[in-house]
Amino acid sequence: MIELKVINQNDPLQRAAEKQHEHEEFSPMDPPDAYAPPSLDAVPYDELHPFLQDLMDEHKAISEQLDVFEKALLSIPSEGMSRETLGRLRDFFEFFDHQVAGHHQREDKQLFPLLRRRLLASGEHGKGGVATTSVDVMEDDHIKSLQLAAVVFNFFGIAVRLPDPASRLMVLDAALEQGKSLVELMRLHIFREDNIVFVQAHQLLTQAELEEMQTK
User: Fold this and answer.
1) pLDDT in tens, 64-107
2) CB 156 within 8 A of CB 87
3) CA torsion 142→146→152→153, rounded to 10°?
4) Which structural domains are found in the chain, ordered by start?
5) I need a labelling partner for 144 at 20 to 30 A (CA). Which of 7, 62, 114, 181 fits?
């Protein structure tokens, strides 16, 4: 299982927050409330370029689907795999396949390449052997979320088909645990992008560059 609480000292997201807010008592890598995180930068939504606003709006839609998915996961131990629950799970994975994957691709292909170059040029990167930026962390999250979603989907598919109750329960338990990890990963990922990465894009990219990204 992915351990989300372990924070590398060279994490570029952690460094960015510490550099801009040395006196804050919380860390953006461990937000106190995933649904209503404190703002780490004074950049109002209305001042962001429409391209970044669109990405944040998509985050809101993803968060709503994560809430529904999590409720379905939490209902299974007490209510079992009802038809309603199966429908919610199916809807989530369809949404993930069509909407979340597309959202990741837009960031990976349009926003991240130029932003990575600007972060490296400005010194906003980890100080380890490899210069790792916040973009690298986000791209790694994208890969992890896709992998986790596939694992959870397959576990649920296997669980509903196993005839042996003990085996079914074991696989179902694994599906639930990995599903919760997926929810936690996605929420933290959205928090990082909204509060750090998009702010970096606002600061380091020109309006013309963001406009070109939007037209693509």
Assistant:
1) 999 999 999 999 999 988 899 999 999 999 999 999 999 999 99
2) no
3) 150
4) 48-215 (1.20.120.520)
5) 114
